[in-house]
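Intended use. Records like the one below are meant for learning the mapping from a protein sequence to its folded structure. Do not use them to infer anything beyond what is encoded.
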Amino acid sequence: MRSISFLLPPLAALPLALASASASGIELDVPAQSLDAALTNFAEQANVRLLYDAALTRDGRIAPALKGDYSVTEGLQRLLQGSGLTYRMDADGTVTLVPQPEEQGSLELGVTTISGRLAGRDDLPAEYAGGQVARGARIGMLGNQDMQDVPFSVASYTSGLIESRQAQTLGEVLRSDPAVRQSYGFGNFSQVFVIRGFQLFSDDISFNGMYGVLPRQIIATEAVERVEVFKGASAFLNGVSPSGSGIGGGINVVSKRAEDEPTRSVTLDYASDSRIGTHLDLGQRFGADNRFGVRMNLAQREGETAVDDEHNRFSLAAFGLDYRGERLRLAADFGYQKQRVNEGRSVVYLSGLSKVPKVPDANDNYAQPWAWSQLEDSYGMLSGEYDLNDQWTAYLAIGGKYTRENGVYSSLYVSSLDGSARVGRLYAPRDEESRSAQGGLRGNFATGSVTHQANLGLSGNWREYRSANESTSAGNRLPGNLYDPFPSPEPTPTVNGDIHDPRKTGSGKARSVALSDTLGFFDDRALLTLGVRRQSIATDAWSAGTGLRTSNYDDDITTPVYGLVIKPTDYLSFYANRIEGLAPGPIAPSTASNSGEMFAPYRSKQIEAGVKLDWGGFGGSLGVYRIEQPQGVTDNGVFGVDAEQRNRGVELTLFGEVHPGLRLLAGGTLIDTELRGTAGGNNDGNRAVGVPEFQYNIGFDWDVPGVQGLALNGLLLRTGGQYYDSANELSIPAWTRVDLGARYSFKMEERDLTLRASLENVANENYWESANGGYLTQGSPRTLKVSATLDF
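Structure written out for the chain above:
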C-alpha cells in the first residue's frame, strides 16, 4: 500500500489483489478527503490494483464522499470528477490514472466510453473531508465559490450534518455554527438568528440565492440539501433584504435535487414527550444521460414537546424538478408548509425590576391555554441558466410565496422577583404576498496575464401584506406568575383594523443592478474583487384602522465592495474586505414630534481581514471584523438617525477530519460592542442589548473503532452573558449546554437501515438563552430524539 513520503519514486503503486471491473455494485464507505487519500481507501475497499504518478494528486484537491453501492467504474468517475484525470483499465484489471486530454469530453475505459454527468450534485461545491461542511458556498451574485478563493467568511452545512444531528428546523442546524445564536421573534415563535451581534429575521433568508420565497417564521429541513451562512454585511452580494435585517450575516437554503443514484427512504421519528413523525424522501433521474430529475419530500409530525403542555403539528410537501442538458439547465421548486403551535411557551418581558428573575425549570410553561399560532406557506421558484459558450453563462430565476399567519399570543410582563406578572394578549392575523426575480450574466476571460471573473446581475423583490391586530394595553393586562402559572381569562383587547378581513397595511419594493469583476494576478495567487450595486428601495404604509397612507419612501442608493485574497501556498490564503449592509429606513414613532417621518435607508459599514487554512482533510479560519450600524433615537422629542452600534469581533472556525473516523466542527467568537450617540448621551459606551461577549462551540462525530456502522457525536455550546437593556442595568448570565447522540447503520434484508438517537440539553439546564430584542427567551429543555431511516 502506498504511503505519502518524499522518498517515494515518481510512479506510485497500490499492490492490491486483482479484481474485475464489472458493473456489479461494491459497498463503499470512502469519506470526503484529499484525492490521494480517497484513492487509497477506494483501492483497498474495491480490491483493485491502482497505478498513478504521485505528482498528479499533489494539488490538494478534495474528492467527494462515496457511501453506498458503486461499481469500480462508477466509483472512479465520482472520485475523479473535476480533477482533470481519467483512467485506463488493462486486461489484467490494473487501473492506471492518466491526465485527461483537453479535447476529451468522456472517460476512456479501454474500448468502452462513459459520458454524461456523474452521480451526486456537481452543481454544488464538493463536500469537505468528513462530510459535515462543504468546500464552498453560494456567494450571492458571484455564484458558487471555493472558500479559499473569496475575501469573505462563509460556512456551508451539508445534509449529512442535518441527518446526523436529527435537525428538524433551520435553528437546530445552525446550533453547530459558533458565530450564530438564536431567539424567538416578537410575540410569536419565529426563529430569529443573531450573527455577529445583529439580528437576521427568517423573512430575510434566501432560497437558492433569492429572497422572498421561503416560508416565513420557521423553516423545516426535510427538503434542504445545504444551509449556507455568510458572515458579515452583504448588500452588494444579495441586494437589500426584504425586511432589512441581516446586517451581521445572511443565510441561504439550498433545496434537494434528484441525484444519479435513486433516492428512496422513509424515516420514522419520535421526540419527547410524545411527538411522532414520518418523512418520505423519493428521488429519481430518467431520460437520456439522466437529464431529467424529480425529488419529492413529504413530512408530517405531531405531538407534545418536552415543554409542559406545548403541542406542535407540522406538515410539509416539497417537490423539486430539474433538467440538465449540455448547455441548458432548468429547475423548479414547489412547496407547502403548515405549522401549528398550541400553548407555545412565550417570551418574557420585564417591568420595573432591578435584576433579571431566576430562570424557571427547563420544562415549565407559562403560556396561557388559549394561546396558539398557525403558519401556512405556499411557495415556488423557477430558475434556469444557459451556457452561451465556454466562458459565459446567462441565468434567470423567478419565484414567490403566499403566507397566512394567524395566532393568539400570550405575553408575560414580570414585575417582581417572586414571579408576579401581568398577562397580555395579542391577536395579529397577517397575509403576505411576495414576488421575486433575478437574472444576470457570469463569465471569465483574460487580458494578458490577468484573469477576470465578471458578473452582471439584476434583482427585484415586491411584497405586499395585509394585517390587523387586537392588543391588550398595560391597564387591561390580567394577573399571572412566572413560577406558578395559572389560567387567566383572555384580557380585553384594543382592536386595530378588521381582524376578519385585514386591509392592506404595507408594501415594499426593492430593485437593483450590480456589476463586479474578480481580477486574478500571478496565476490567480492574488484575487482582487471590485463591485458596485445600485439599489432602489420603496416602502409604503397604511393605517390598519383607517386605511389612510401613513408614510412612504422611494430612493436610490449605491453600495460598493472591495475584497482581496492572497494565496502564498495551496493551503494558505489571506483575505480582507470592505463591504456595506443596507436596510430600509425607519419611521419616526408616534411618541416623537416628527411622528410618521420616514428616513433614508440605513447604510452599515464592515471592514474585515483574516486567514484561512486548508490541509485537505482539516481546515479553519481566523478573522477580525468591525461593523458600524446607524440607529434611530428620539432625543428632545425629535426622532433621528443619529445613534450607532459598533461591533468588533474575532472569529475562529475549525472543521474537517482531524483523524480517520474523527470529524470536528468547532470554533468561537469574541464580540465587543459599543453604543454611540444615544439620547442625551446617557448610554454612550454601553454594550448592545442581547449580544454576548463570547460564544463558542465544540462539536465532534466519531466512528467507533471495531464496530462497523456505529458513530457517536456531541455538541457543547457555551454563550456569554447578555444585557437586557441599553442602560446595562439588567443582564442574564452565561450558559452552557451539551447535546449527545449516536447512530448505527447496517443492512437488513439487503436494505440500508440507520438508527439514530440524541439527547439535547443532557443536564436539563435551566437558562435564559437570549435577551435579544429586549425580551427573554428561555432555552429548550432536555429532549430525547430517536429515528429510523430505511433506504428501499
